Structures are given as structure tokens and as C-alpha cells.
Amino acid sequence: MSTTQAAKLNSTQGSPERAERPSRERPEWLQKLLDYPDRARTFLHEVRVEMKQVTWPSQSEIRSTTVVVILTTFFFAFFLWLVDQIASWGVVRFIKLFGH
In the chain, where are the structural domains located? Predict the structure, then answer.
């Protein structure tokens, strides 16, 4: 018998309790629960790394894009109000023409 085979035999014959009781795997939900702190730590580390790569806009860029958004909103609000007024006028004319 070789020395590795003898070592394997001795390790399996160690204590009687260990030989009689087969090792059980943890349920998946328990393993996920126990792995949570490591996964959370990894996630936060990755977030920090990604946030360092972000190119943040300057204050003047933020101001100019905000003005563009506000002006665009007013333009479309006026345009949709105008379309609604024209459609409303058309519906009223249609009802008066074919109403009675």
C-alpha cells in the first residue's frame, strides 16, 4: 500500500462519529443568507469603482441643459394647447353641422 493510500485510509477511519455521519450540504437559501455579507461588500466595492469612472457635468452644463429642458417643456405645452384648441373647434363645428 502506498503512503497516499494509507493517508486516505487513516483519514476516513479517524473518529467513529465522523465515519458514521455523512456530511450534509447546507440548503440553498441558508447558503445564500450566509453569503450575503460577502456579496454586499463586493457590490459596494464595485459601485465605488464605477463611480470613480463617472464623468460628472459641470455646473454651467447643468444650468444650460436645465434651461433647454424648461424651454422645450413650454414649447410643447403651448403646441399641445394649440392642437387641442383647434381640435375642439373642429369637433364643435362638426356637431353643429350634423347635430340636428
Answer: 24-54, 58-100
